[in-house]
Amino acid sequence: MTLVWRPGFQFDADASTYIEAVEAADTQALETGVRYAINDFVIGCKNDGIWNAIKASCILAGARTLSGALVPLAGTAPTNYNFVAGDYNRETGLVGDGSTKYLNSNRNNNADPQDNAHISAYGTQWGPTTTTVKAVIGRQVNGFNERALAVATNLNSGNLSSRVQSQDSWASHGKPRATGFIGASRSNSSNIEVRNNKITVLANQSSFTPSVFSLFVFASSNGVSPNNAGNPAAYDNSRLSFYSIGESLDLAALDTRVSNLITAIGAAIP
């Protein structure tokens, strides 16, 4: 589909490619404001020096259909397990059910280096407090999450808990009950950064050689299988409008860009 241009304004090539793929999946054009929001996000990430670190990502908002929302912003398209059109809202994102629905990101955990990795998500609604671990994004082996954003009342009193390429203790940082961006990033072997509620903290956590299996979204991939995916566990019932997986990056910069993106999309949709 043909993009609409503002006088004196040119869309970023990567943003254009993504927008056109979403519109093809939707079989309908996006609103001009949604297009601008996506373009501003991509250009902003490039200006911040974080774009190339995003290796697998979906904007789970803005698109007119679920198919459009699952077009990858970066990397390979996720595999959808059991999500249907009614689970998707253009402004607030995709909601899990805590029992059967998840995405296989098709990004293997060891595709990102042991000491150079991140995960992030933007939640417009977090699942209720639970005594069972719920993984917003996760990969676990031998009973340990290697890279995960998770929450449960038996994990650090319900705080956001995270691991990045590690089987060390969970890093904990504040209860994720306020909507918005959460993320964790590793740039060395001894600690990780965890961001929640607009604050980034440093947590001691030793790195561990990552396994080959994929990370899941709305669940954690657990165990092994012939397709290198694993079996889903720790299903989450939050509503997400963005996720990213990749190499280490500036979490505060990504938080700003994603938050502005989701706000701008909401404002552009009638």
Textual characterization of the structure:
The protein has 270 residues and is of the alpha+beta class. The chain has a single domain (13-268), classed as Jelly Rolls (Sandwich). The protein is 20% helix and 33% strand. It has four helices and 17 strands. It has helices at residues 13-26, 32-48, 66-69, 251-268, and strands spanning 54-59, 79-81, 88-89, 93-95, 102-108, 117-125, 134-141, 144-151, 161-163, 171-172, 180-186, 191-196, 199-204, 214-217, 220-222, 231-233, 239-246. Strands 1, 3, 4, 6, 11, 12, 13 and 17 form an eight-stranded antiparallel β-sheet that branches. The chain has a six-stranded mixed β-sheet with strand order 10-9-8-7-15-16, with no helix packed on it. The longest helix is centred in the C-terminal third of the chain and has 18 residues, at 251-268. It is globular, with a radius of gyration of 17 Å. The relative contact order is 0.21. The model is unreliable at 1-8 (pLDDT under 50).
Give a brief outline of the structure.
This protein is an alpha+beta fold. It has one domain (13-268): Jelly Rolls (Sandwich), CATH 2.60.120. It is built from four helices and 17 strands.
What descriptors fit this protein?
Jelly Rolls; six-stranded mixed beta sheet; globular; 270 residues
Assembly type: single chain
Order of helices and strands: HHEHEEEEEEEEEEEEEEEEH
How large, in whole angstroms, is the Cα Rg? Answer: 17 Å
Number of helices, counting only DSSP H or I runs of 4 residues or more = 4
Percent helix: 10-25%
Summarize model confidence as the mean pLDDT.
91
Q: Count every beta strand, where a strand is a DSSP E run of 2 or more residues.
A: 17
Beginning-to-end CA distance, first to last residue: 21 Å
Which runs of at least 5 residues are low in confidence (pLDDT < 50)? Answer: 1-8
> Can you tell me the overall shape?
globular
